[in-house]
Amino acid sequence: MGKSRMLHLVAFAAMALAGTAAVAGGVAERVGPTEGREIRAVIEAQLKAFAADDASLAFSYASASIRAQFRDAYSFMTMVRQGYPMLIRPSETLFVPPHAVDDSVIQTVHLRDRDGRSWRARYHMLRQPGGTWQINGCAVDPDQGDTST
Predict the structure, then answer these.
(1) Closest residue by Cα to residue 123 from 68, 84, 69, 74
(2) Alpha-carbon distance 125 to 100, whole Å?
(3) Angle 52-85-138 from CA coordinates, rounded to 5°
(4) Which pLDDT belongs to residue 12?
(5) Distance between CA atoms of 73 and 95, rounded to whole angstroms?
């Protein structure tokens, strides 16, 4: 992996972890059912775009800061393929209720990759001024079986 790509991957991971750290430091509150459906739809749409190898569409669900960091859909998709292959065509997904933390929302998704391994993805979601949601990062860890987070 080239130095530039590694820096992109590290930066993306740092942003994702910042979102995850907000859960630990902030006060988590339940998100309403309408917002929960909207957030789930965005994540599912990005997962579908990953599965279709549609880099432009997948990139469109990323927040402005993520888009600025990667600059183009090709670089973004390359980072996903190299650092987050479990997000490309998972065999199963399970969404748990999202939680609001400060001015963002954390959506946890349990997923199983094509090799049968279980993962926990924590999506940091931001509501945009027009009311839509965008993905501001995703931290993925091996799933230890706790479906409550």
Answers:
(1) 84
(2) 9
(3) 95
(4) 46
(5) 26
The one-letter code for the residue type at 54 is D
Closest-CA residue to 61 (of 46, 76, 49): 46
Report the residue count for the chain: 149
d(CA 85, CA 87): 5
Distance, in Å, from the CA atom of 95 to the CA atom of 108, rounded to the nearest integer, reads 6
Q: What is the mean pLDDT of each run of 10 residues along the chain (149 residues)?
A: 43 44 55 94 98 98 97 97 96 96 93 96 95 96 74
Nearest Cα to 59, choosing from 76, 42, 84?
Answer: 76
Strand-pairing partners, residue 118, are 112
**Which residues are CB-neighbours of 33 under 8 A, at least 6 positions away?**
none
